[in-house]
Amino acid sequence: MSVLRPVLPRRFRGDIPVVPVVRLTGVIGFSTPLRPGLTLASVAKPLERAFAWPRARAVALLINSPGGSAVQSHLVFQRIRQLAAEKERPVIAFVEDVAASGGYMIACAADEIVADPSSIVGSIGVIGASFGFAKLIDKIGIERRIYTSGANKAMLDPFLPENPDHVARLKAIQEDIHATFIGLVKSRRGGKLTAPEPDLFTGEYWAAHKGMEYGLVDRIGDLRATLRERYGEKVETPLVAPKTSLFGRALPGVGAELSGLLDRPALTDELISSLETRAMWARYGL
User: What percent of the chain has pLDDT over 70?
Assistant: First the structure.
């Protein structure tokens, strides 16, 4: 092996420290054929490849997400922790613009969270949003007809007047999800959390310095400088990306569909997804 060492790529040489990097970017769970979202299906393979990297010193997560689906956030979090335990590799999360809500949940899968001074972190809460069109359809003379089996099957229908009982049921579900999120943050950040709970878990978010003061962030820095300081100037940081198609798009994961890519419903879904994605980033001034 010593004879071959000079001709091997640096990242495959045993004397060169390697930290594979997985980029986790985008709104979590929002997905259309043209705009794959950040889901377990889309990131499972890159994560598995990164943790399987021979002689890797650690795995780095480059996170830039305003959140999204609570379920997909938790699934990605769980997969990272499973792989970290299985391969016995430390995990370091590096926050770019934002790791908020589900993005922060994923960051909590790391053993250490590093953020830029202007990064946004937190938003430990649950949100649901919709519109009400009941007055509009009355005004333009449209009659709403809906047929259900089950008294609450049409709960929160945006074309019906808001029902306080239905809103109370939704809020109860949100409280359950919020409690799970709070428990996860406590279990991962432990004694590092310094802010009072009424301040920390309201859904508020902060810049990185305040986040570090509250125990949500471990240090201020960036990927390149941090890894060089820790593993030496020669450290290699290969980006482990999803496999792409001939046209450069990420290949779809489990359950994804490529058929009907250019039909009108698909384009309509794409437009709606773009607006929802834009709204998610806009909540953090981005």
Answer: 72
Query: In the prediction, which pLDDT does 259 show?
Result: 42
User: How far is residue 115's CA from residue 96's CA, in Å, rounded to a whole number?
Assistant: 7
Contact 177, 74 (CB under 8 A): no
Q: Tell me the catalytic residues.
A: 101, 153
Domain ranges in the chain are 5-123+204-282, 126-188
| Mean pLDDT across the chain | 82
DSSP 121-152: EE--S--------HHHHHHTTPPP----SSTT
| CATH class of the domain whose range is 5-123+204-282 | alpha beta
CB atoms within 10 A of CB 101: 27
Q: How far is CA 117 from CA 78, 87, 90, 96, in A?
A: 28, 31, 23, 10
Cβ partners under 8 Å of residue 165, min gap 6: none
